[in-house]
């Protein structure tokens, strides 16, 4: 069974952390992943940087620009992850935009993911219908789960469709925004969280966007299986470097 | 089998096009996709659109027989005078159409991207006309080098927001506009300025610009007794004036389609915007098309002396015309374009936009028969480029 599905079966709320590969320094990828696992994180999204990240706010954009300047490429990322499964056992997901994967070759990219032990992909600009008709078979051939996003504006009908195509979990974007744009949850979010919870979808949901501390984490996981923190963690890396990852995770989990 | 050059019902031109957008944009783009054709076909829409094009923009724009230019190149050259439109270029055809579309979709906030500022000015103009809030994203670097257009937009009541990310030019202004739309999904319409972006944008922009070729047909009939020229020529950045110039001739293979891209300092100089020569299929701003990128799939920064052609991709229609062989693609360097611009000024008394000068440089690259009828889209006037001409020719 895919590590993501295994993890989702555990009787606990999950914390997933996003970081941009190649940032702050080009060779930080492996040690950030190892430190996150040691700190008690349940799942990791490794950001493959892109020159034009449309769905991302300033924090992740800046980390992507810096990572590309540092020399990060798809090829280099796979090289860095070559032996990752010797030391890390939690699910690993690559999150990136479609063009770099297209240029690498979608099948070659998937094959490489399987070789190094990646469990899934999140590709914000690969629409669900294109995935379904053109790439689903390839992803499945290499044991990869492709995770789709829903937002407060997504219609019930479309959510049902996305749920039917999905495996693993659904990435529930908390508000109409780019990453890191809005902090905290209001009434709108609570209603949206409740609406989705009441739909009884076949896939569990993990909430992302707008989660930066214990309070928002608690709010999000009241209704969903887990939460994803991205911009707040990247900001922490910028300020404090990778040495204090444990400290950041402790604050988030209040442990 | 007859080849199809227009868009198919899935939103593709051949293998190019589609809508590669994050889920956050899906409701906005889907709302537009489901409604745009219906709205454009409404008689009240058509009436309002034609009326504004006539009384406000000043259409039809003349089709002018360029006698001295024709003599010099020993062929029959007609210029389609989009430079005489209100705001000085073809851009306004599209912004008029899209503001009417936005109103019918119930939107009360407009966003746009701009490079040189022409599309920004055309958008700010129609927003002023309709009394709708307007925000234009413009790269910080472009704001500095296009000060007069920034002032125009402000005078028209628009807010100009600097794009501070990436290379801080047109591509980044487009990213910022898209991000704004993600953050404001309900009340906002995004007026894209070129035949690019996710479906249905390339088709919608092309259809609004198709008034150019529609007029060419009846104007040529009046002047030459036939509707079809032998060639239509246009410059291409994203390709909206070209799309409008070609549209009604796409399926008539007796009419040659000629595109001129910006080669900058030379196609292989590393400072160029000749996408068909340098680009590879990929995804930019929500559409599958030819674009300039690294081996690793990162989008690269183009260069051209013309800010309006300084875009790393071309619209999906043009990728299809290139790949299918329907269009002949050339590219003109900065020097060739500037020389052609000066030549038009001195032969015909028309100072063209530097974008347009690239189309005029076609005569450097291709010979025509003496009885060929060649229609060139004179997409914009050169007032905005005066400083560039001054610097280049030491006027």
Automatic annotation (TrEMBL), chain A:
> Does Amino-acid biosynthesis count among this protein's keywords?
yes
> What InterPro entries does this protein map onto?
Trp_synthase_alpha_AS, Trp_synthase_suA
Q: A single Pfam family, by name?
A: Trp_syntA
Q: Which reaction equations make up its catalytic activity?
A: (1S,2R)-1-C-(indol-3-yl)glycerol 3-phosphate + L-serine = D-glyceraldehyde 3-phosphate + L-tryptophan + H2O
Q: Which enzyme class, named as a word? A: lyase
Query: What GO MF terms are annotated?
Result: tryptophan synthase activity
Q: Which pathway features in its UniProt record? A: Amino-acid biosynthesis; L-tryptophan biosynthesis; L-tryptophan from chorismate: step 5/5
Q: What is its EC number?
A: 4.2.1.20
Active site: residue positions: 45 (proton acceptor), 56 (proton acceptor)
Q: Which NCBIfam families match?
A: trpA
Q: How does it assemble?
A: Tetramer of two alpha and two beta chains.
Family that this chain belongs to: Belongs to the TrpA family.
Q: Kindly provide the name given to this protein in its UniProt entry.
A: Tryptophan synthase alpha chain
From TrEMBL, chain B:
* Superkingdom per UniProt: Bacteria
Recorded GO molecular functions are:
tryptophan synthase activity
Name listed for the protein in its UniProt record: Tryptophan synthase beta chain
Q: Which stretches are annotated as coiled coil?
A: none
Essential cofactor(s): pyridoxal 5'-phosphate
Provide the function of this protein: The beta subunit is responsible for the synthesis of L-tryptophan from indole and L-serine.
InterPro entries tied to this protein: Trp_synth_b_CS, Trp_synth_beta, Trp_synth_beta/beta-like, TrpB-like_PALP
Name of the gene this protein is made from: trpB
